[in-house]
Amino acid sequence: MSIPLVEDMSDDSYVLDIHDITLTPAWPSLGRQVRWEMDGHLKESVDLTKVVCDVVMKFGPVKMLDTKYRLPDLLARMGARLSGDPRPPAGPWKQAWDLQLPETVPVAEQRIRLRARTGTGKNFFALDIPFDFRRRTHRAMTGGGAGSRVLGPTHCRCQDSLSSSPVAELL
After folding, report:
1. Rounded-to-integer distance, Cα 169 and Cα 140, Å
2. Cys-Cys crosslink for 170: which of 28, 30, 93, 112, Cβ 3.0 to 4.6 Å?
3. What local confidence, expressed as pLDDT, does residue 56 receive?
4. Mean pLDDT by 10 residues, the chain (171 residues)
5. Using an 8 Å Cβ cutoff, are 2 and 156 in contact?
6. What Å distances lie between residue 10 and 13, 115, 117, 119, 149, CA to CA?
7. Which of 162, 104, 100, 109 minimizes the C-alpha distance to 135?
């Protein structure tokens, strides 16, 4: 079953044009790993070691987290690291990360707002990732804001692996 989990809030001015995001398993669980595969097109060369990510995690109107991380540091906090060329040229770009989700977060509907800028200050990407951790089976919430692009069946393939244990969670 494919469910839109990630809203691409980027527009044509962003350096990365995201074509596809695949999450495995489709419904990640706290304390478990999720595979995040991203496929896109870089409009120009980017030094990924200098990309800064603005991470805001909210549940309802309450901000639980509002922090900036360099992309390599954010990935390291999630148990992953950059792979391939850290300074890829313009053109097709793919990354895959096995992210370790935290063991505990407040049991509530949550939204992670992830905005990234290049080392030169250009908009790199903008993603909104809604989750609902209120149930034993944790499905990501769907719904879009005005002007948002939901990465759905053709843009976000969310797969459950038969060999994996119970339903899991995301980033």
Report:
1. 8
2. 28
3. 95
4. 69 96 81 91 98 92 92 95 94 95 74 95 95 54 39 38 30 37
5. yes
6. 8, 9, 11, 18, 8
7. 109
Identity of the amino acid at 61:
P
Beta bridge partners of 55: 67, 114
Q: Tell me, what's the pLDDT at 43?
A: 98
E-assigned strand segments in the chain: 6-8, 16-24, 33-42, 52-59, 62-70, 91-100, 109-117, 123-132, 149-151, 156-158
CA dihedral defined by 33, 82, 17, 125, rounded to 10 degrees? 80
Phi, psi angle pair for 158, to nearest 5°: -115, 120
Contact (Cβ atoms closer than 8 angstroms) between residue 116 and residue 124: yes
Closest by CA to 71, choosing from 39, 110, 117, 14, is 117
- With left for phi above 0 and alpha for psi between -120 and 50, is residue 70 left, alpha or beta? beta
Determine the pLDDT at residue 133: 62
